[in-house]
Amino acid sequence: MQTGHLDEIALALGRMGWLLHSERTPVVFKFLARYPEIERFASQFRTCVSPDEKVWLYGWEDFSDDSDQGWRFLEQAICLQAAQGDAFWTSTIKAFWSTHLPFALSVRSGYSSLLIDTSGQFEKP
Questions:
Q1: What pTM was estimated for this model as a whole?
Q2: Residue 105, domain extent
Q3: In Å, how far from its chain's centre is CA 5?
Q4: Into how many domains does the chain fold?
Q5: What angle do CA 103, 26, 68 make, to 5 degrees?
Q6: Which of 11, 13, 46, 108 could cross-link with 23 by S-S, CB 3.0 to 4.6 Å?
Q7: Nearest 5°: phi and psi at 103?
Q8: Cα torsion for 58, 53, 108, 60, to the nearest 10°?
């Protein structure tokens, strides 16, 4: 999947009943600069949630430390707490998240996510 079609995807999802809360972000997320299409997409939507509220595409609220809505992107730092004291595990986690960004999350049939890497390619871990 190419990131250049994210706006069209969002419009199609809206026609399929997804809740798209269009609202431009009040802040700039510097870490998103490595993912220009995601930055452009996420900056336009506060939330993008499936009708059954079990799948969502990341909007700017999901990248915000100030969000009070569910699971936030930056909470992935919890992984680092689990690796505390293990230098190899800590460096592996940091290296992975320095080149990957979550784009979608689903809890419909178990937990799954869709990530994008710094080359612009989507992958499912």
A1: 0.74
A2: 3-123
A3: 16
A4: 1
A5: 65
A6: 46
A7: -115, -35
A8: 10
SS3 annotation, the chain:
CCHHHHHHHHHHHHHCCCEEEECCCCCCCHHHHHCHHHHHHHHHEEEEECCCCCEEECCHHHHCCCCCCCCCHHHHHHHHHHCCCCHHHHHHHHHHHHCEEEEEEECECECEEEEEECCCCEECC
